[in-house]
Amino acid sequence: MSENRVIGCGNKIPWHLPEDFKWFKKTTIGHVVVFGRRTFEGLPKAIPNRRKLVLTRHPKKLIRDNPAIFGRYKEWLGGSEPKEAYQFRFVKLDEDANDDIRIFNSLEKIRPEEFACDVYICGGAEVYAQALPLCSDLYLTIVKRTVEGDAYFPAFEEMFSEGVQIEEYPDFKILHYRNRLLPA
Asked: What's the whole-model pTM score?
């Protein structure tokens, strides 16, 4: 987020920080990433080697409006997971099932215990607001400037301990916070 809490403008990130993208990739590769529909659709390119969970109230519209994405996948209906745990699951054709896309209509239907890895919430604003009370940790990039935007990071300071700096660059820093309201 920027110094004035902006995280987006016109469904785009209003800055370009290659080092932050590298940190994000290194941190999330092999794990689960959760996106709201608009954030997922606004991604500049695919995010490989991660399970992608997409939250939307209109899953069929998401699939229909994004044939370039979902045309490379097939819907998967088998396996040991209970069907009520997800609404749609797509697996890349002829590739690893650990790079799948699952579509949910509610954050409550996502069960982190199903995954043998970390789950990262990746936006947007509404998803952050819903998920923050459930998160044990918060890794937050602070962009060292004020920017114009239409999407803002929600207040979290009452829930989380003071952030510990884990990376510092001229244009941004990355802080790690712990949720003080959840059991340790």
From this structure: 0.88
